[in-house]
Automatic annotation (TrEMBL):
Protein name per its UniProtKB record: Citrate transporter-like domain-containing protein
Domain Citrate transporter-like, chain residue ranges per copy: 14-122
Keyword line: Membrane, Transmembrane, Transmembrane helix, Transport
Membrane-spanning parts: 12-32, 44-70, 82-108
Pfam families, per the entry: CitMHS
Origin species: Youngiibacter fragilis 232.1
Keyword Secreted: no
Record's subcellular location: Membrane
Annotated InterPro entries: Cit_transptr-like_dom (IPR004680)
Membrane topology according to the record: Multi-pass membrane protein
One GO CC term on file: membrane
Amino acid sequence: MDKIIRILKKDTVLVVSWVIALATGFVILPSAEYFSYIDFKVLAVLFSLMAVIAAIREMGVFEVVAGTLLKWTGSVRSMSLALVMLAFVSSMLITNDIALITFVPLAIEVLRRAGKGNLISVVTMLTPDW
């Protein structure tokens, strides 16, 4: 029981999200129509893209790109700006979700190689998602 309480205290956002989700379940009653709202083709494409990105990561492509980006940028600030702008510009050419699925793993790899793992959450939250 203590373990559950610690988890609930640690993940406050999760608890609040569940409470709000349950509350909205009483306001708008669930129906079978909800399943028609889910576009399984899009979910399959996004899952496939995530599998491709994982394969690219395993092949070491992100390591090469991360090394190149680290050579071009001289500071953590310019590196972070380059990552954010790369995702921003690419999201103009491809959809936002594809840009994020592609560039968030790259940003994580760049920050790890730069020894700035503590900035991973900051930079990934700054990627454009509008």
